[in-house]
Design brief:
Largest sheet: 3 strands, antiparallel
Number of strands: 3
Radius of gyration: 46 Å
Order of helices and strands: HHEHHEE
Number of helices: 4
Strand order of the largest sheet: 1-3-2
Helix content: over 70%
CATH class of the domain at 94-163: Mainly Alpha
Length: 166
Amino acid sequence: MGLLKNEDNEQLRQLVKACLLEISKLKIELKKCQKESSKAGDERALLELKEDVESKLLEKEKEINNLQELLEKKDQKLEELEIIRYHFNALTAKPKKDLTSFQSQVYQLLPKEEDTLENLYSHITEIGFSELSSENFEHVMRNLERKGYFESYQKDDEVYWQKIDK
């Protein structure tokens, strides 16, 4: 009977070894699964982080666009103010020699580019000389021409006026 016990013991030992071996394999498999699960969790976290970063990026882009719009509006306002400054300086400048104050203002405010009398009149009335009649403006222009501040010439059946720098 002692032999049977040894055989039984041996069988039990082999079964225990097989079980231990199987447990080791399962532990290795469990570690692999945990690593994969961790990677999947990391991937989920990375995906969430990416989505969060993208949404913040969109918010920042909107904010940048809003700021650019504000800058454009400010630039536009500055341009308008520069025009007003130019007109103010022209209106308050000391009159040119041999010109009346009004003639000097008209001369200072008109552009250097050649143009028709109608366009020049339109320009001067937009600035603020709304009470000035077309006939009086033409008279002022003829006086400026006579004094050498403007010259007129015929071009394509229309009279053009050119400012002369003095």
